[in-house]
Amino acid sequence: MLARVAAAPARATVVHASRAEERDELAEDDGGASGLRAAVAPERQQVGMPLDAGRYRITSHYGYRVGPLGGGSQFHTGVDLAAPLGTPIHVVADGVVTYVGAGKDGRSSMLVIVEHEIDDRTYYTWYNHMYASDLYVSVGQQVSVGDVIAGVGNNGNSTGPHLHFEVHVDDELTTTEPLAWLEEMSTP
C-alpha cells in the first residue's frame, strides 16, 4: 500500500496539465443541442507526496504512541517524515495558504496550513517543525501540487529534523490518517 503512494504521487515535479478549459471551449453552447458537456466528467485534482521519494523515512505514524519527549501515551495527529535539514517540502495538492507562523492548537514551532478543494470537499494540510527562515509562502498565496513551500526543520518539540504532516477534514481540527488520505486522493 505505502509503496504505491510513494511511487506514483511522490514526484514533486508534477506537471499539472488540466484540460478543463479546453473541454469547456469545446462544450460551449452555440445554440445547438450538444451532449458533450454532460458526457465529459471533470478531472480529479492531482495529489502528491510532501517529500520526494527516497528522501525521507517514516519515524512516527498517525495514532496513539508513547510520546518521544516523555509524557506517556498520546495521540499523534499526523505522520513524521524524517529528512535532512532543508529538504524541500512540497504542497500535496493545489490550494491556498491560509496560515504561516508559530504553531497553534498544540503544535510547536513554525506551521504552514494550506486549504484544498478536492471532489467538492474542503481539506487542510498542515506542515510543521520548519524554521522561520525556511518558509517560502505567505497567507493568501495560491499554490500548485509540487510547489516547494518550506524546508524541513528541527524546530519546536522535535527529536530530529523531520516534517510533521497532518490532514484535517474540516475546520474543527478533525484529523485523518495522512498516508491513507494521500492514497485515497491519488486513486482515480
UniProtKB/TrEMBL annotation:
CDD domains: M23_peptidase
Entry keywords, A to Z: Signal
GO terms assigned for molecular function: metalloendopeptidase activity
Protein name stated in the entry: Peptidoglycan DD-metalloendopeptidase family protein
Protein source organism: Georgenia subflava
Domain M23ase beta-sheet core: 74-171
InterPro entries with a match to the protein in the record: Cell_wall_metabolism_enzyme, Dup_hybrid_motif, M23ase_b-sheet_dom
Segments for region (Disordered): 16-39
